[in-house]
Specification:
- It contains 16 helices and 29 strands.
- It is of the alpha+beta class.
- A hairpin with a 2-residue loop joins strand 5 and strand 6.
- Helix 4 packs antiparallel against helix 5, helix 5 packs antiparallel against helix 6 and helix 13 packs antiparallel against helix 14.
- The longest helix has 87 residues.
- One of its GO terms (molecular function) is sterol binding.
- This is Oxysterol-binding protein.
Length: 739
């Protein structure tokens, strides 16, 4: 007979074969002389006789002891591909029968009755097995101890004390990994089971010794089955190693994660205590200073000064329980950010879960522009719409519109200051018709919920409009800002009408660490004229991800779903787009098991890049060149314009205490006007209508009118005209007195 020679080198497998092959690897390898068991570090190998059955009795097998596992093979050559069985010594028992025999059992289905060639050889094995068993048991105990304290319930913590998106992501990752490990274990067992059954069936066929064409076919099938068995067993061994490693380390990883969470909670609690102590000491210091000043100027007695200190201490209160008391900040150069120290936690701790617009905040946490001006900053990269208006191809035009939708976030990367909430009826105009060809108008059209309408008309062939309502929640550790509403871009050429929405903004480290901002979510930029769309994904920051931070990806597709362009980049730096030449399905995408699409593209072209910030941006609220000009006084603007807002102007001038007082005055004035409107609305209704329910506010915006959007079906405010004409006439009689 002929012998097939297998050269095992995982993962490569080479087989030299010739015709009429007879597979009998075990018989060939059994001719090799039996070596003496030899230790190799933590590994112990050698030939031992193993009881098989009453017909064959004891058969010689090659045993390998490594990493607390005792495995055996029919021959040494099988070590690379076929393991006949394995026992974990950590839970196994070792017993000696007589001079040469010994038994190893795991108390279950696996029991090995073994016989050494002599008593000395048996003793070597017993010694090696006992040492390996002790080490394996010790390692398992350490692994168990490291994971005993962890449970799914212990991973969750109270709101504001370490919970949030990162914990959810970690738990989701652990659950997914656990599920995949279980799947891997199941596949391992199935491959081993069915592979053994297949090999037995083929061995039975081979034993028939058929001749002719049938015999050749059977031998050919047997060869291929052997190749499959070798490859499968190599994969099974690799999977077994991975499974053992994953199980050994998973509990340690979980314990480490839990320890990090607990430490973070302790740090937050400590920080809260320090903030309270700091506030108390600061009040005590101010009280002592005031007492000393009073004693010097009016000759008050020392005892009187001490009494004043006690009175001041007795008046200590948390920031949100009564009217907040603000720290005096000296004047600075206009628009320059002062280096002040404020107890943010003392103000925010009682506001967890509340709507941000309902939290009374001092101007110390603001930046000296309003939300209307911040909305106008979307036009920082208006030239993208100028280029889009010149495009001959609607799909290429969509790339520029999508890049414009991303560019609006570039100004937010370092902007942790809160813009002023606009008063109802407040407006802001940005007339750049001479320099850039566009005019922009914003108006606060609703106060509860706060909503701003924005309309931009350009001489270069496009119109932009939007109504944004900001929903926000303070979650203890982070602040979520969810803009609601739709943005529209309409182009004269081709009459292409695009819509999209904004993604969620998250401000992290409200309590501990440096504030930082992330943008996350998915949006569709849709061309309602052609049916084309661009799906954009803003990837949230993840500690476990290897992707570049602030990553954005997108695909431009026609109405049939065929991809034409791929966009990639970051929302704080730049975006590129590439033309798709071919696409194909391949691989799996993440944990959901979905196939991902692979795109073959031409060389990428840069479509947008962020403008550099002015020098010393960190001292001017990280304002861009455009933002620095937004609050500059201009002649002829409406009396309701944000530039005329007194508290905002006082803050920019560095007069912080006056700004806080003025802010409270304006807010109280707005409340009084709203109550008066509600009374008027109630008096206009009939008695039958007013018997039930609270009074309704009948406020109507001045420059925008409420109607149903014909594209989205939403109730929105659309510019009705008249503002720029009123400006030309200098006629502002219709404007309300809000300041």
């Amino acid at each position: 007979c002929h012998i097939i020679t297998c050269h095992i080198a995982i993962p490569a497998i080479a087989i030299n074969s010739c015709s009429n092959l007879h597979l009998d690897l075990g018989a060939v390898m059994s001719e090799v002389k039996t070596p003496t068991p030899t230790p190799a570090g933590d590994t112990y190998k050698g030939w031992v006789f193993k009881w098989t059955n009453y017909i064959k009795g004891y058969q010689r097998r090659w045993f390998v002891l490594s990493n607390g596992l005792l495995s055996y093979y029919r021959t040494q050559a099988e070590m690379g591909h076929t393991c006949r069985g394995t026992i974990n010594l950590a839970t196994a028992t070792i017993a000696v029968d007589d001079a040469c025999n010994f038994v190893i059992s795991n108390g279950g289905a696996q029991t090995y009755h073994l016989k050494a060639s002599c008593e000395v050889e048996r003793q070597r094995w017993i010694t090696a097995l006992e040492l390996a068993k002790a080490k394996a048991a010790r390692m398992q105990a350490e692994s168990d101890d490291s994971g005993d304290d962890f449970s799914p319930s212990s991973a969750s913590v109270p709101p504001g004390q370490g919970g949030g998106t990162q914990n959810s992501e970690v738990q989701s990752t652990l659950r997914t990994l656990g599920s995949k490990v279980e799947d891997l274990s199941t596949c391992n067992d199935l491959i081993s089971k069915h592979g053994s059954a297949l090999q037995r069936s083929l061995s039975e066929l081979d034993s028939l010794r058929l001749t002719g064409e049938a015999g050749d076919k059977i031998r050919q099938v047997t060869e291929r089955a052997t190749l499959f068995r070798i490859t499968s067993n190599a994969m099974i061994n690799a999977c077994r190693d991975f499974l053992a490693l994953a199980q050994a380390h998973s509990k340690r990883w979980q314990k480490a994660l839990q320890a990090e969470r607990e430490q973070r909670v302790r740090l937050e609690e400590t920080l809260e205590q320090l903030a309270k102590q700091h506030n108390h000491l600061e009040r005590a210091f101010r009280g002592a200073a005031q007492a000393n000043t009073a004693a010097d100027s009016k000759g008050k007695s020392l005892s009187k000064g001490e009494a004043s200190d006690e009175d001041d201490d007795n008046e200590f209160f948390d920031a949100m329980e009564e009217a907040p008391e603000f720290i005096t900040v000296p004047s600075y150069v206009p628009c320059y950010k002062p280096n002040y120290s404020l107890n943010l936690w003392s103000i925010m701790k009682n506001c967890i879960g509340k709507e941000l617009s309902k939290i009374p905040m001092p101007v110390n946490f603001n930046e000296p522009i309003s939300m209307l001006q911040r909305l106008s900053e979307d036009l920082e990269y208006h030239e993208l719409l100028d280029k889009a208006a010149k495009c001959q191809n609607s799909l290429e035009q969509l790339c520029y519109v999508a890049a414009f939708s991303v560019s609006s976030y570039s100004t937010t990367v370092h902007r942790t200051g809160k813009p002023f909430n606009p008063l109802l009826g407040e407006t802001y105009e940005l007339d750049r018709r001479r320099e850039s060809g566009y005019r922009s108008l914003c108006e606060q059209v609703s106060h509860h919920p706060p909503a701003a309408a924005h309309h931009v008309i350009s001489d270069r062939g496009w119109t932009l409009r939007q109504e944004i309502t900001v929903a926000s929640k303070f979650r203890g550790k982070y602040l979520s800002i969810m803009p609601l509403g739709t943005i529209h871009a309409i182009f004269e050429k081709g009459n292409n009408h695009y819509t999209w929405k904004k993604v969620t903004t998250t401000v992290h480290n409200i309590i501990v660490g440096k504030l930082w901002i992330d943008q996350s979510g998915e949006i569709d930029v849709v061309n309602h004229t052609t049916g084309d769309r661009c799906h954009l994904k803003f990837v949230p920051y993840s500690y476990f991800s290897r992707d570049v931070a602030r990553k954005v990806t997108g695909v431009v597709m026609d109405k049939d779903g065929k991809a034409h362009y791929v966009l990639s980049g970051t929302w704080d730096e730049k975006m590129e787009f590439s033309r798709v030449m071919q696409s194909s399905r391949g691989g799996e995408n993440g944990t959901e098991g979905k196939q991902k699409t692979v795109y073959q593209t031409l060389k990428a072209r840069e479509v947008w890049r962020r403008n550099p910030l002015p020098e010393g941006a960190e001292t001017i609220y990280f304002f861009t060149d455009l933002a620095l000009t937004l609050n500059e006084p201009e002649e002829g603007v409406a009396p309701t314009d944000s530039r005329r807002r007194p508290d905002q102007r006082l803050m920019e001038d560095g007069r912080w205490d006056e700004a806080n007082v003025e802010k409270q005055r304006l807010e109280e004035k707005q409340r009084s006007v709203r109550r008066e409107r509600e009374r008027e609305a109630a008096s206009q209704r009939t008695s039958s209508q007013s018997e039930e329910g609270a009074p309704h506010d009948n406020y109507k915006a001045l420059w925008f009118e409420r109607c149903e959007d014909r594209i989205t079906g939403e109730q929105v405010h659309i510019y009705k005209g008249g503002y720029w004409e009123a400006k030309e006439r200098g006629s502002w009689e219709a404007c309300p007195d809000i300041f």
